[in-house]
């Protein structure tokens, strides 16, 4: 009788994936529950749960971070990043469902592969199909670099409390976000094709400067999910991986090839338009330019492309007053007549408030006026700080959180003896450094230093010393909220 029970239990347990029975062949109900509970937490299931948790982090965390006041001023949003969070949510639920019901089908694996490729193409969608967001990230990155260079070149002077001999640098506008372009025939050499990944697919410093943790967590979660899929196949996992890659790679290769062609084709058409312009065929230039801007949005942020379109429209008697005003502003800016350039750019912006390139040139024209007033007409000691401060504040109204404008305003107020107001600007700089993936050390150091001077003049010696330590030692940094107290 005992032998019969032993064999029956053995057969039953094979079908229920429970571990072998005891030597007597009799298993108690508590033992069965323990065995089932232990078996539920096996390696594959736990890996899927980790993938689901990581993907939920991708839903919770932001995918892209930019100052909200700038997004509002430029009339744009981060909906494309929100779409990515929806993808992360769907795969988080899928990973959780697989963990509970243990589906090991090829369809599930193909879904994870497709999701991984789609998420890895997120930089491409930002760079190509969201030109205003791409412009803002590129502009802020460039502004941070220029401010850092000024700190490095003038470190002894900017450490001086009174700043009597310091000069500010004239900023340059971001002239184009259509950085993926064919300069010459050397582009088609294999050594030059890294531009496709860096500029074409968006894997540049501009993009990664403001990428959020949500995107990284989603990529990690999808990779973990794929690992779990093949772990569940045990010894068949490697063969299944090779088979899946062999089936998936051709389709992925076709998709990548189509994207590359979609990036190369606008360059070929742009060269053709350039030829038509040189031949004096202005009407086709205007027509093709308008179509190409719609099909390839980065060209909406290319200065030379817009200049050529406006000039062709002028010669073809297809006048566009907004475009003409922009070109006149460019010409005045080239001659360093920043006051006249501001007038033209103001007229262009009044009728094209969503044109981010016009807003960039207008801001830079006003900033350069302020720099000229601050540096003085004859010598750096002849500061006209009042006029300079007024220009820097106007620039910030047009381009909120502009890093160079904030930096110049902070120095100008300190040079004018307005240490409390300089510290207020410094705190704004600290707030802007919450958005980049990696904070700008030089800017934060100067911001904390200006906070220290304000506290010193207010008689708060201990707080001044603490803030001074923050300016030279990043281990003493606190979050912006504590720094503002």
TrEMBL record:
The chain crosses the membrane at residues 46-66, 86-103, 110-126, 207-233, 245-265. SUPFAM superfamilies: TPR-like. Keywords: Membrane, Transmembrane, Transmembrane helix. InterPro entries: TPR-like_helical_dom_sf. Gene3D superfamilies: Tetratricopeptide repeat domain. This is Uncharacterized protein. It comes from Chroococcidiopsis thermalis (strain PCC 7203).
């Amino acid at each position: 009788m005992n032998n019969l029970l032993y064999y029956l239990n053995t057969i039953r347990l094979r079908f229920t994936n429970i571990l072998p029975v005891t030597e007597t062949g009799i298993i108690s109900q508590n033992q069965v529950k323990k065995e089932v509970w232990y078996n539920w937490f096996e390696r594959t299931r736990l890996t899927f749960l980790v993938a689901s948790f990581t993907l939920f982090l991708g839903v919770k965390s932001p995918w892209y971070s930019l100052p909200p006041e700038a997004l509002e001023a430029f009339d744009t949003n981060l909906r494309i990043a929100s779409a990515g969070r929806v993808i992360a949510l769907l795969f988080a639920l899928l990973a959780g469902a697989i963990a509970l019901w243990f589906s090991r089908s090829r369809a599930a694996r193909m879904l994870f592969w497709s999701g991984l490729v789609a998420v890895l193409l997120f930089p491409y969608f930002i760079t190509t199909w969201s030109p205003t967001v791409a412009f803002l990230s590129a502009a802020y990155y460039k502004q941070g670099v220029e401010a850092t260079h000024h700190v490095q070149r003038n470190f002894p002077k900017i450490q001086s409390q009174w700043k009597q001999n310091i000069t500010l640098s004239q900023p340059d506008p971001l002239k184009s976000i259509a950085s993926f372009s064919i300069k010459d025939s050397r582009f088609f050499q294999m050594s030059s094709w890294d531009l496709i990944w860096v500029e074409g697919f968006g894997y540049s410093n501009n993009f990664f400067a403001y990428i959020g943790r949500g995107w990284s967590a989603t990529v990690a979660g999808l990779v973990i999910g794929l690992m779990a899929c093949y772990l569940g196949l045990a010894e068949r996992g490697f063969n299944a991986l090779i088979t899946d890659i062999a089936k998936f790679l051709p389709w992925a290769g076709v998709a990548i090839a189509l994207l590359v062609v979609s990036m190369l084709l606008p360059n070929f058409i742009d060269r053709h338009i350039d030829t038509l312009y040189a031949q004096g065929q202005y009407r086709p230039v205007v027509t093709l330019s308008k179509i190409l801007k719609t099909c390839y949005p980065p060209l909406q942020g290319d200065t030379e492309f817009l200049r050529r379109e406006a000039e062709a429209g002028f010669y073809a008697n297809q006048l566009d007053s907004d475009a003409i005003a922009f070109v006149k502003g460019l010409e005045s800016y080239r001659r360093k007549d920043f006051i006249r350039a501001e007038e033209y750019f103001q007229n262009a912006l009044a009728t094209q408030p969503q044109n981010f390139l016009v807003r960039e040139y207008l801001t830079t024209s006003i900033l350069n006026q302020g720099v000229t007033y601050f540096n003085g007409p004859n010598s750096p000691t002849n500061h006209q700080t009042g006029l300079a401060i007024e220009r820097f504040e106007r620039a910030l109204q047009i381009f909120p959180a502009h890093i160079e404008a904030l930096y110049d305003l902070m120095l100008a107020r300190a040079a004018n003896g307005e240490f409390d107001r300089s510290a207020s600007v410094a705190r704004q700089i600290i707030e802007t450094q919450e958005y980049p993936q990696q904070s700008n050390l030089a800017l934060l150091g100067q911001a904390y230093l200006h906070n220290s001077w304000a506290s010193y003049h207010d008689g708060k010696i201990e707080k001044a010393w603490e803030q001074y330590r923050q300016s030279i030692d990043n281990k003493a940094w606190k979050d912006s909220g504590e720094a503002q107290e």
